[in-house]
Design brief:
Length: about 300
Amino acid sequence: MVRRNFLSSIPAAALLLSLKNKEQFPISCNTYNWVTFYRRSGKEWGKNLEMDIAEFAKTGIKAIEPNMESVEMAEKLIPILKKNEIGLPSIYVNSVLHEEKEVTKSIETILGIAKAVKSYGTKIIVTNPSPLKWGGNQVKTDAQLITQAAALDKLGGLLKQMGITLAYHTHDMEMLAGAREFHHMLQNTAPENMGFCFDIHWIYRGSQNSNLAVFDVLKMYGDRIVELHIRQSKNETWQETFSPDGDIDYQQLAKELKRRNIQPHLVIEQCLEDGSPDKLNVVEAHKIDLENIKKLFI
């Protein structure tokens, strides 16, 4: 039985447990990294998927986590991934869940995408519910957070019936106001309905660059973690390649994960920003990312 068929046979109730097994998926890579590298080179990721995925395959990374916008995008991408022998164990989708009028539309869109990607072995759908305004410091009302948590729990329950785990993801904005939004989502959803995509650097940055916050989140929600988004910075600036040496103590993080027997899906998300080094091309950088993450976590 091939791995994809085996995973699809796992009962939904056992899915979170199965996601603790580090053998289930190869190391993956989010496409946002590639967006930032391509932008630096004056190119546009996604404009020619055939060429983009062929270049991705040169890194040796065997799985990808795209920002899946529609069923049509999934139907276009999957044949190209098959051709290049790239797996799709997880996808990232956007959602608007804090307003009642948007909830049904978001849930229906995600369920439609889930049906399209399930046949290619997708087992995790990551979502970061949209903020009131990207890049701002506005926070949602208590009523909006209650609506959002209920929507996440409902969506997670529906995906569970399909054999897919919903994983909650955050950026820095959810850490505002005492991390009120972040905690409410994890405190008011059922673990069997929703896991946690631990984006380590956004927790770090959203907590005013605090390693303590990273490890406190691990202590509080380690049993919910099904996926890691892995990125490193030095002197608070994202680096061109991942290294355990930098602002975040990844050596200790890896030790803690192993000590607690937390074995999540590993996803490279080493992105560029203003001030990032400019020495390597996208393929060279991701080959280094893959090797360093293997050494640290596997």
